[in-house]
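user: can you give me the structure for this one chain? tokens are fine.
assistant: on it. calling the predictor now.
[tool input]
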Amino acid sequence: MAVSAIDSSRHRRQTRTQTLPFISIDYRFADGSLISQLNELRKRIKEIGQTAGKVRERLDEGEEYRRYGLDNITLAEDAIQQAKDAAAAARKYLDTQGRDAYLSALDRKDRLGQQSNRLSQIAREARQLADQ
């Protein structure tokens, strides 16, 4: 029974392979090839680290572009608000000052029209007096 357990253990060790993402270690050979597999594993871990570094750089660049975008959005929103404020101020000015100026002009026109009518009437009276 002991011999069969040892043979079974050897068989499992010789045929077992563990696979992880990017890493595959074959346990069938426990001699010098294990060292080469460890070296290969070390190399792959280094490559993964480099890839992770590149990903981090891209993430940092993306974050920087995101901040620039947010700054630009804020500037655009501020410009829009300033334009709205200027339009509201112009509308208010036109509603008050413009209306006052318009009404004043109408009043002057009416007064000048009345004066013109009065002058025309005086001129007619003067002609009538001159004709007599």
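assistant: here you go. Residues 9-18 have pLDDT under 50 and may be disordered. The helical segments are 2-15, 32-131.
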